[in-house]
Amino acid sequence: MERSTIKLEVSLINKIKEIQALNCYKSVNETVKHILPQGTVTPEIVTYEQPAFTLKSGDIYKNISWSELKLNFNCIFLNQTYFIKK
Question: Which domain of life is it from (predicted)?
Fold first, then answer.
């Protein structure tokens, strides 16, 4: 089982302990499992990559990231290799 340490405000700790005592939960983990709704997920951190370049068509701008560029290059390379082998 993976473990982690989190820092909580004292007021939150006291509320968790109160809920734990009222419901006879044995651990903080058990208490938190009952407090959080089923299916609760943490939001994923979104990071934006610096674009390699920007394409412009009229009023429309399209940023092309390095990842997209590498992916498309690999697809083109694989397609060319495929046709050469045939």
Answer: Archaea
pTM of the predicted structure, to 2 decimals: 0.40
User: How many residues are listed for the chain in this entry?
Assistant: 86
Say what angle helices 28-35 and 10-23 make with each other, to 10 degrees. 90
Tell me, letter by letter, the H, E, C secondary structure of the chain.
CCCCCCCCCHHHHHHHHHHHHHHCCCCHHHHHHHHCCCCCCCCCCCCCCCEEEEEEECCEEEEEEHHHHHHHHHHHHHHHHHHHHC
Q: What is the pLDDT of residues 44-85, one digit of tens each?
A: 666 667 888 888 888 998 888 887 777 776 666 555 555 544
**26: β partners:** none
Domain that holds residue 77: 51-85
